[in-house]
């Protein structure tokens, strides 16, 4: 038997059809032509043409079309599918046995057809349509003698004009009449101006210009191109009244006299009459008065009992003399009155040039007889502060210059105010205090009192130094040299008044002095208002160094370099190192050398830079390179802190008393002082802290913890395999806490023990002292746990892991601290239980913050985040954030740039100090206030030069509007000359 299935052969696919050719585009059609316009008008109606505008421009031709692209060829047909089949055969042999045989067969598929050819793109050359023909515009004017045709209407342009002021002094003064003369116009149109209607020229009214009703009339039928000059005719206008509202610079306002041509019959103007730059230039004037007063010059700060010269000048900027003894007499006077401040009238005194006492409750007044053109009249009084004047109080003096009205020369009115603030400085003679507050003449009394209150709340003493009083910061150099004993400086670095304009106190401070303060262990908290942090320029002590000044150490001998750096003080002379080789090799070796020194002393910071190439060694093509290594402020101690705040906040007592500012003050304290205050401060636990979720609950604990966190981060930067002894020696701050925190005998001088007393010998975990101990140890436990990374638990060599050693060292310090402070075993157990409970609370808050993705899962990072969150809204700059490990090396070019900048800052500081000294020598009066009062004649008001008899003897009161951001406007009457 045979079963067979047969299938036909697969057929090939058909070829695809060819694509069609692209169609040809068409060229653009011609643009439309402009219209053919004829405007017919009577000669009596030509004024209406000013209202007509026309456009007969031709339209642009159409854009050319685009040629079509050829069609895509069709795809070839698919070949038929291949097939396979089997045949089964059944056979019997001669013995009758049945045998089955299977046969397999297949047929291949057909071929795919070829794709059709693509059609070709059209290639017709196409053009844009041509532009249409421009149309025509014709004006047909019907006149008596026939019809006249014109290509366009008339138009009027300003050719020129001149102007002068009434009295010819060259000053365009408020209330004065100004005259516009020699106006010249031209008909720039294509037809005459209207024959039956007037075109008038007038002055445009502005904020300053009040035109009179007078106008100029253009002659009728002015021919095309014809000009007309208004000879002998003038357009007058007045400058409006000006009343000064505040002290400051003299009035000088730019204004432009603008002329306008119009056809009143149709109430329309010639738009392009005076719009050119030349026309604007002709009319530019400056509105000002002929007299101006210079700013008041005196010392900005006077100690109680001191006196200084008060100087100013009344300048005549006009080209004619001013005063009541001139060809055109006008009354002139100067007046001074006290307008605000904290001082009482009997605490600040004025004396005239004769020594006569001028009480400020009545004021000073003086008439001026004559000031010649382009000359000035100088004045000099003496201002003195009484011996009982309170420090940091102030008096605001307002100077006014008065000038007779232009139309009423004997009737005075103020034309300019100048203001000067005399502040009572505090020339501290204190040789010792915990905190020195550096204030200036703009430091408010309430601001100083707030700082004293904050400092006292920690149990610290304070002294205030007014830099504006002496004009230098030599006191900080004395502090750095140990001549004065201060442990911290709060530098109020807002802009203060100087003879060179507003400048911050740090402009008087050279970077070397700041670094010397850190070397002496004195911390600096800078409060500035955008004047710039002092940290960067201080922490990189790259000063110009002459290589021949000292013998260089061989840089290949790392131990010799380390030995030289061992005793290097902060801001010292540095260590000079010589390296030989090509520049890239030397750069690599200097990197290794820097890392070696950092590993030796991780708690210190060294800056390394290339000082330049030395001489070429004749035995080798390589050059000798010299490196300078200098030590800068240690990162963990937080010696320098800067806060940037708005000017109004710096002087706001509420800002000073705010919890975040108190916390920042605590962070800026020297580490030893903050550690001492943990047990001795009168501040209750939690006082002065910035409240944040899951944060440290005490400001002093946070201050100590911040420094310990930085110290641990520095140690963790060590290389693998650091010994335990190395870890212990690299954490001196932790050792200090372990040995002295909450101690019954802190290592401070007798003055501390006398002032604070010794801490209690017993410890209650619920007391303020005990709660601080628990808080500190609990956070140290969290911080220590975060030092160990997960891979440090993976064997082998667990004993070589840095994080485990740091954690072990911290826990050892906690145990030692608790064992030393708690006298009995029961007390120690109670403290450890309280620490464990507090750790549990912290971890619960930590977990909640972590769930909200507001905290890291690492304990060290979480601690640092909580510490930083206290100042989230503050612009704070800590010195620990500067000079990361890879940012302490500088190339020769970078060093040269920094040397130049550092030299500039130093020279600027020296120049500012010298300028302040010269200014003080020139203005300071060595006679005391009490002596001046004793010498003075009985108080009286004097007018040396009497105005002419025709002048009004009584001119009424003049109000001075005194405006301040802090106080409501106050109005005081100025005295008048007799």
From TrEMBL:
Taxonomy, superkingdom: Bacteria
Protein's name in the database: PE_PGRS
Region described as Disordered: 1-34, 61-86
Species, as recorded: Labilithrix luteola
Pfam families listed in its UniProt record: DUF7932
Feature: compositional bias, Gly residues: 14-34, 62-82
Sequence ranges assigned to domain DUF7932 in this UniProt record: 156-277
